[in-house]
Specification:
Largest interface: A-B, 52 and 58 residues
Shape of chain B: elongated
Strand order of the largest sheet of chain A: 3-2-4-5
Strand order of the largest sheet of chain B: 2-1-3-4
Helix content of chain A: 25-40%
CATH topology of the largest domain in chain B: Nucleotidyltransferase, domain 5
Number of strands of chain A: 5
Strand content of chain A: 15-25%
Order of helices and strands of chain A: HHHHEEEHEHE
Largest sheet of chain B: 4 strands, mixed
Distance between the termini of chain B: 84 Å
Strand content of chain B: 15-25%
Helix content of chain B: 25-40%
CATH architecture of one domain in chain A: 2-Layer Sandwich
Order of helices and strands of chain B: HHEEHEHE
CATH topology of one domain in chain A: Nucleotidyltransferase, domain 5
Number of strands of chain B: 4
Oligomer: heterodimer
CATH class of one domain in chain A: Alpha Beta
Chain lengths: ~180, ~150
């Protein structure tokens, strides 16, 4: 045991000049393959935490600030160039006059009557179908003027409902009148 | 040997510098918040009519003047009605008539868009329509909510 630990020459491996040990030098510079790949991987990861922070902040910001609003559109119409809103058609065509009357006891309700017709549509859906039926009769078509006459106390909602029903029925000339 | 050594040189760091991106993102947020606020200023919040199977069209009306008609107190129709042109605070109807006259003189093709709360009485809306008609403005649009589709029954 002691003979192996204390060499007689007194020269250790470190003391030997490098030139004499070329193969040993190769071994010292060699790095194991596994270690290298690990180091490259760590340098390639992105630090995602700040980005996630910002994205969540934006998400919450938009959720809080967004108000979901119903889209609004327009019902195009034309006003007569001469005179008031209540236009008198001096034409041989009989216009279809729709009356909307509010019920005095509850303003949210309404009554619809169509002049010269016995049928009384109760809803705007029925009015639309009814106007369609009228148009199918001889002497009436989609060019027949439709006048919506409404009482002063009727809610605007019902007047627009009436107008919308006439547009739905395909009427091309719709105008307002007064009750 | 030299080639071999180059492979092991430490690479420059690949992390992305996020601060400029965040700067830009916040700038965009502020821009859009402000722009959307200004764009909706003339669309005064009110309850629009919502007819069954609405035929209202989502069209861009050019050369338009928006007239907002709303109630002072939505639950009390007798409290009165407010008329306003676009983002301008409510005014009496004759002031609005004068404004419309100026619009009509500047642009004969001006169109009036009537945005009335569905709870207003027809008489109030009619008075606006009469004013518009007296000025010789021919095109008028009524605003209503757009239905989910235009399907026929």
């Amino acid at each position: 045991m002691t003979d192996r630990h204390v060499p007689t020459t007194g020269v250790t491996t470190a003391d030997i000049p490098a030139s004499d040990h070329a193969p040993t030098e190769e071994v010292v510079h060699f790095r194991p393959r596994r270690k290298r790949t690990q180091r490259e991987l760590t340098s390639l990861t992105l630090n995602l935490a700040p980005m996630v922070d910002v994205v969540f902040l934006l998400l919450i910001f938009f959720i809080v600030t967004t108000t979901f609003k119903k889209a609004e559109g327009v019902l195009p119409s034309r006003l007569p160039s001469q005179g008031g809103v209540a236009d008198q058609y001096d034409l041989p065509i009989t216009p279809i006059t729709v009356h909307v009357i509010g019920k005095s006891d509850s303003p949210t309700e309404y009554e619809i009557t169509v002049e010269h017709f016995v049928n009384r549509p109760t809803t705007f859906n029925e009015l639309s179908t009814f106007l369609n039926e009228i148009q199918a009769n001889p002497g009436f078509d989609d060019e027949t003027p439709v006048i919506i006459r409404s009482a002063d106390d009727v809610l605007w909602d019902h007047v627009v409902g009436c107008w919308n029903a006439a547009v739905r029925a395909g009427c091309k000339r719709i105008s307002f009148g007064t009750e | 040997m030299a080639n071999h050594k180059n492979k092991y040189r430490p690479r420059p760091s690949l992390t992305i510098n996020m601060s400029p991106m965040i700067d830009v993102v916040f700038l965009l947020i502020i821009f859009f918040v402000l722009v959307s606020h200004f764009a909706s200023a003339e669309l005064v919040p009110l309850e629009l009519p919502d007819p069954d199977q609405s035929q209202a069209l989502n069209i861009k009306v050019t050369d338009r003047v928006i007239i907002n008609i709303r109630l002072v107190a939505p639950n009390d129709p007798s409290a009165g009605t407010l008329f306003s042109v676009g983002p301008i605070p409510p005014e009496p109807l004759d002031t609005i008539a004068r404004r419309l006259e100026l619009h009509k003189r500047a642009n004969p093709d001006v169109k009036v868009v009537i945005r009335a709360d569905k709870r207003t009485r027809y008489a109030d809306v009619r008075s606006v329509m009469e004013t518009v008609a007296e000025l010789g403005i021919e095109e008028m649009h009524l605003v209503a909510h757009i239905g989910n589709s235009g399907e026929q029954p």
